[in-house]
Amino acid sequence: MQPDDMGSPAQWITFAESDLALARHAGEENVLLGSLCFHAQQAAEKSVKAVLVHRGVHFRKTHNLAVLLELLPSDAAPSDGESIAGLTAYAVAARYPGVSDEIDEAEYRESLAVARVRTGAMGPQCRTGGEAHRRSLTPRHLGAP
Fold first, then answer.
1. What is the pLDDT, as a whole number, of residue 120?
2. Rounded to an integer, what distance in angstroms lies between the CA atom of residue 126 and that of residue 52?
3. pLDDT-based confidence at 98, cuts 50/70/90?
4. Is the separation of the CB atoms in 59 and 46 below 8 Å?
5. DSSP readout, the chain?
6. Cα(32)–Cα(37) distance, rounded to whole angstroms?
7. Which of 112, 143, 132 is nearest to 43 (CA)?
8. What's the rounded mean pLDDT across residues 11-32?
């Protein structure tokens, strides 16, 4: 992405945390595990992109976590990169019928765990200014604080 389009690291983390919250909605009526895995993937992807923006590393638009992880400076590269990259499959295939196998509870729980760890690990270093941005995204008309 070009510098003008990148947003701030705090904005990326805000969006990552939103996706992670959506990924936790298992057990609700009419919610597919594949959709939840998609949001887990998005949380991890946006967390990685937050660090890339924080470090001034430009990246192209992609959902491929392996590609994004390769761009991280060595001191920011996670030790669980293979687990994170494995979430890439949920970026597209899990959202459409007939594209992937059905996702079971164990697979969903694993994707959520990876996303939770990744979002939590990358968030603090990118947090500056995030609270103000989070408030700007809160729909006041819905009675949110």
1. 84
2. 10
3. confident
4. no
5. --GGGS--HHHHHHHHHHHHHHHT-TTSTT--HHHHHHHHHHHHHHHHHHHHHHTT----S---HHHHHHHS-GGG--TTHHHHHGGGGGGTGGGSTTTSPPPPHHHHHHHHHHHHHHHHHHTGGG-TTHHHHHHHHS-GGGT--
6. 9
7. 112
8. 93
The amino acid at residue 89 is: A
Looking at this protein, which amino acid is placed at residue 139? P
Q: What is the pLDDT of residue 9?
A: 94
pLDDT digits (tens, 9 = 90+) for 32-44: 999 999 999 999 9
Domains assigned to the chain = 7-130 (1.20.120.330)
Any residues with CB less than 8 A from the CB of 64 and at least 6 apart, and which?
Answer: 88, 91
| pTM passes above 0.85 | no
Distance of CA 113 to the CA centre of its chain: 12
